[in-house]
Amino acid sequence: MKKLLSITGILMVSQCLCAQTLEHGFIINGGTGYFRDVELPLEGPVSEILKNGGHGDIDYKFHVELGYKLRIDNKAKPFFFDMDLSVGIKKYKYNYLALTEYDPENGDDESISSRYSFVRGNLNLFTASLNATFNYKIYKGLYAGAGIAPTLYLKGFYPDFPLTAKLGYDLKFVGVSAGYKYGLLNALKDNSDFSNGKTGEWQVQLYIPF
Description:
Shape: elongated
Distance between the termini: 45 Å
Strand order of the largest sheet: 1-2-3-4-5-8-9-10
Number of helices: 3
Largest sheet: 8 strands, antiparallel, barrel
Strand content: over 45%
Order of helices and strands: HEHEEHEEEEEEE
Structural class: mainly beta
Radius of gyration: 25 Å
Mean pLDDT: 87
């Protein structure tokens, strides 16, 4: 009896494993975004400019990622699992400036740079991430998914754990999807001009299975 149960169990597990298919391929991600919950240190060049009546902002320009996707799918079930491993770059810039006291009668320099104090930056954030999503098949190749994308910022080695959501469509030889990432932790930890700044990102992905 025990031998019969063991054989039955092995056959059931084998059947489940055979029903699963493992797909994999190359991915290209790209998009833009914004910074939210931006905070400044109490003392610093940007804080000083704002105290003196200046203004400015921080602008998320774009991000690009290259990577590899693993997909576990049971064709008979409406759910499947994606795991994307990628490396990438995020580009952002900021510009803050204030008008300084200027009196040419006292011999002050008349150049534009002497009339303003400013802080500028045009920087890159290099990342490595693992995006795990649980997906539901809606109709034919159309699906929706949600998950989490643990991310490591390679300069400073600090993490983030963005929540993700996406809507995609798989064709015969290629898949496309559009998604959103909601960062939970400070992405500007290596920039002393800011004490906090979390990301929100829109992204398009091209998936080329092998």
